[in-house]
Amino acid sequence: MISIGEDGIAKRKKILGEEKEGIFRDADISFDGKKILYSMRRSKGDDYHLYEMDVDGGNVTHLTFGSMIADVDPIYLPDGKILFSSTRDPKFCQCNRHISQNLFRMDADGANILQVSGNGLSDFHSSLMPDGRVMYSRWEYVDRHFGPSLGLWTSNPDGTRHALFMGNNAWSPGSMLDARVIPGTDKVVCIYGATHDLPWGAMVVVDRSKGMEGTEPIDHMWPDSARRLVGENNDAYNQSLQNRRSVDKMRNMKVRYEDPFPVHNLKEGKGGGYFFMVSKSLSPEVTHSYGKVPKGSGKMGIVLADVFGNEVLVYESGDPVLGTFGALPIGPRKVPPAIPDTVDYTKDHGFLYVNDVYLGTGKEMAEVERGSIKYLRIIDAPARRTYDERGVWNVDAQQVTAMNWNLTNNKRILGDVPVEEDGSAFFKIPADTFVQIHALDENKQMVQAMRSGTIVRPGETQGCIGCHEDRVSAPSATNAVPLATKRAPSELQAWIKGKDVKKPEPFNYLTEVQPIFDKNCISCHDHGKEAGEILNLSGDLSFPFNVSYHELMVRSGARYSGPEEKMVNFVGDGPPGVLPAFAWGSHRSKLVRVLKEGHHGVELSDAEMQTITGRIDVNAVYYGSYTSYYPGRNPILALKDGKKKNDLVFGDLAEAGKMKEHILGKGHLVNFSRPELSPVLDMKRNPEERALALSYIKEAGELLKEIPREDQTNLEVPKSAMDLHNLGRLGATKHENAESVKAYIDGIKYYQFK
């Protein structure tokens, strides 16, 4: 605790808590100014839990518990409850190994912890808005590049009405963090940062009424020179993957800011917008490389900054390395209105409506003929619950382990619902399920895709004006009384005959698509056949995918480049800009066109064609499971002396970068189903080495017969030790979360892991 005298000099008044091997973080002050809420980790062996103390440091209360759980970013809510971010629903980053977090809420004493957000990645850095809503940062990347997908979102404290507030559709900034509404204004102060960096960057005051991307909404920026690092606000720039390195532009700053707080009249809740307390790097230049900060260069001090260009260093730690963060005024403050809870935990579903699917904010629906959209497809992108620490696949986006060509998600089609003639839809979906929506034509081919996600809470009805509505000035609804709302909500229908909407499975290429090729195509398109030289559609197992998937994707390019026709036009981990209708998917894929035109008398059934188009439209996914029994999906490495055998089989190509280059240019290297057909054998000039390589590939093929790889069954197969550990962790937290819901319904108290 520090005090600032009339002379402007700050003095350390009191140390409220001290842990020599621990960390205090994320403080919040109670509305009456008498309590401090914070997150603490006492040592490296401890976990982050929430605590509360009196403002004089007394009466420390331990509020949350649990092993291998991180509870951070707590804030007081107007109804007396507490909102925070936690790993109690453990999810892992799809391009790496670190754990993610979602929003949770609990009673003031730590009882009845309930999850209130369901994003497949992270929701964090929450703050309370003057109207009682919550603003937070969300990191997601459903069919989008991992870099620019960290914008600002809002929701009610009970998790209803999650909505994008700002960002998400431009390359830079790579992150928007530490946001707070400036009391008495409609503006927000936050940090614009980079993707691969610590949570610091430029401090900005933004006015959303002027726009949601680019420099237009920026009223003030510290330093002002950082404006040049903010991404361009135009479609061409933000729809091109050529600009993907812009996600780290903000790393080029010479100084960094963190944890801004608008100085204002606390009791009246207004008078802000001119002065800000903020942490600022004190060294003349900050250097940083993926989390490794040179000693002393990252030290932060507390600065008072104003919009007139003045900055005064208020306080810095006496420690030569440690900085100071998160300055907050201690005192009573105005209490925002408490938004009543509307979640009905006795229900397992909610409802979504669309007023008119043909409405958009720009060109995204301009080429779509009214009446042509017949269905909406509801798709889940399941969270990564496990990862394979033993192998990395990297075409454009690093995957631990391989899932798809360059897409980190897997997909689960929950079902389809009808669209009325006026473009409206009203339907029931599973509660707390992170879903995206596709608009489909009469052939159930995707016309436009939501490359983001949303949830509805139990019993909630949530809706939108149209496709990609404008959050700043949404267009007037064309349907005063939509036809879909004049009837009961639609139930999800099977997207293809035979699918069980009650038990949807993740889409798995080898068990879904390959049987169609086996039946209709490989009589010609196989090894040793003329058509197979043009396009091999064999189902033989390779590494890390099967042969036909390799062949199709090699002929489709490494990443999305636009709406031109490709063998398979997938968006992959695509650009952040909103794409126009028909920009990718089955309508832009040569494979579909050729099959529809009638390829040498091949006639697919409707179900077969819809399986192929459906798979392309969910972004050309391959694996249906994140679990991996074999190291990096490679059975050779699971053999005795696997590393040695793998090095002999692949030679110089055993190096990840060289293998990637070869596969992108020429396709698969090994064939575990018919080992003698492995292309890698043709690279072996030494007969003895070639014979050994063949024997090792055969040995791995036999192992795959004994213990199937995940693509062979789309079922849960024997897990690695890491899978078992992570799934056990998930099971424990799922049980505790279910007990909290039950206690909430019954009106009793339940304390997780206590």
UniProtKB/TrEMBL annotation:
It comes from the Bacteria. Keywords: Heme, Iron, Metal-binding. It comes from Luteolibacter algae. The keyword Ubl conjugation does not apply. Residues 508-701 form the Cytochrome c domain. This is Cytochrome c domain-containing protein. InterPro entries: 6-blade_b-propeller_TolB-like, Cyt_c-like_dom, HZS_alpha_mid.
